Amino acid sequence: MEKKLLITDLDDTLYDWTGFFVPAFYAMVDEIVALTG
After folding, report:
1. Higher confidence at residue 25 or residue 8?
2. What is the separation of C-alpha 20 from the centre of its chain, rounded to a whole number of angstroms?
3. Distance, CA of 9 to CA of 15 (rounded, Å)
4. At residue 25, what are phi and psi to the nearest 5 degrees?
5. How far apart are CA 8 and CA 6, in angstroms?
6. Quick one: which of 8, 20, 26, 29 has the fewest CB in 10 Å?
7. pLDDT value of position 29
8. What pLDDT is recorded for position 1?
9. Distance of CA 20 to CAs 2, 4, 12, Å?
10. Smallest Cα–Cα separation from 7: which of 18, 19, 17?
């Protein structure tokens, strides 16, 4: 039987996902604006 594991880090104790996601999101928005004018 295959075992599956889900690890969540909702309080940013292991990984600061907002520190990664927010700059990446803004970069994507900037690229969309550049492409669409």
Report:
1. 25
2. 6
3. 7
4. -65, -45
5. 6
6. 8
7. 98
8. 80
9. 31, 26, 12
10. 17
Our CA dihedral for 17, 20, 22, 24, rounded to 10 degrees, sits at -140
Is the CB of residue 20 less than 8 Å from the CB of residue 27?
Answer: no
pLDDT of residue 16: 84
**Which among 28, 10, 29, 8 has a CA at the least distance from the CA of 18?**
10
The tokens for 33 are: 């604006």
How far, CA to CA in Å, does 22 sit from each of 5, 16, 28, 34, 37?
A: 26, 11, 10, 18, 22
Residue-wise DSSP of 1-37? ---------TTSSS--HHHHHHHHHHHHHHHHHHHH-
Give 24-35 pLDDT, tens digit per residue: 999 999 999 999
